[in-house]
Amino acid sequence: MAELQDILDQIAAEMATRADRGKVADYIPQLARIDPKQFGIAVALPDGSVLSAGDAGTPFSIQSISKVFTLAIALGRLGDQLWRRVGREPSGNPFNSIVQLEQEHGRPRNPFINAGAIAVTDAILEGYEPKEILGELLRFIRLAANDTDIHINKAVAQSEAATGDRNFALAHFMRGFGNLRNSPERALGTYFHQCAVEMTCVQLARAGMFLTNAPGQPRLISVERVRRICAMMMMCGHYDASGDFAFKVGLPGKSGVGGGILMIAPGRASIALWSPGLNARGNSQLGTDAAEILARGTGWSVFSGRH
Ligand code: GLU
Fold it and tell me: Do both 168 and 245 map to the same domain?
């Protein structure tokens, strides 16, 4: 795998030269303080090895990437019932948009836009305490990553709660349509904490291996659910830039406003990228560029025909 390591080293070297690194998310004050000069990449492979380059050992806020794990838990808990609460079509709108939610009577387009993720968290909260759900989420992620040193940064969660007016608007709106069972405070208190999980690229790449359906991986969810979650990631994982990501990279991925991207090469690898500066659509600027270079260098696009 020397060749893959070369590709990662070249990507990290190229990213270090980039002057335009995007803009760090500033609507969550704790995230606004992160140094935009950082870039990390890690690739986990079915043989258990993880190759990496750059700042792949630095923990960052996974933010919306957590929605992949809560979706996996929710599908395990509720099965297809979940789709009554949330759709599975791309939204074509920004991650925190409220417009479509009104037009579609409080049922969010998909589980990866904020409204949809809040509905998913609300669904798994029913009958449980927020603490229990967050404990289950951490157990799931730690098991997937085979690493117990993964935690929630409470300061980030509190920082987001203090400035989360748009998410509160979405939650109240859904409750108005009968699509939120818990109070907005309870659902969002849990949601903000799930978004504040911190992981390094190496940990995140390992944690994504259950989504590769590669032989020998821990079967945390069924093969069919993996297929469905990856389909959602491909169609909706980068908000209104999901089409562009599929066009340029051709792999299912999920981004977060902390600047992370989890990307799956089915049957082959799980990839984590991180650089805190975001592009105009709220996705990691360098992470997206690096994903494109990696997909080109490896031929891993699911549309490449090489299997
Ligand atoms: N916690 C963030 C929010 O709700 C997540 C958004 C994201 O990562 O895209 O605004």
Answer: no
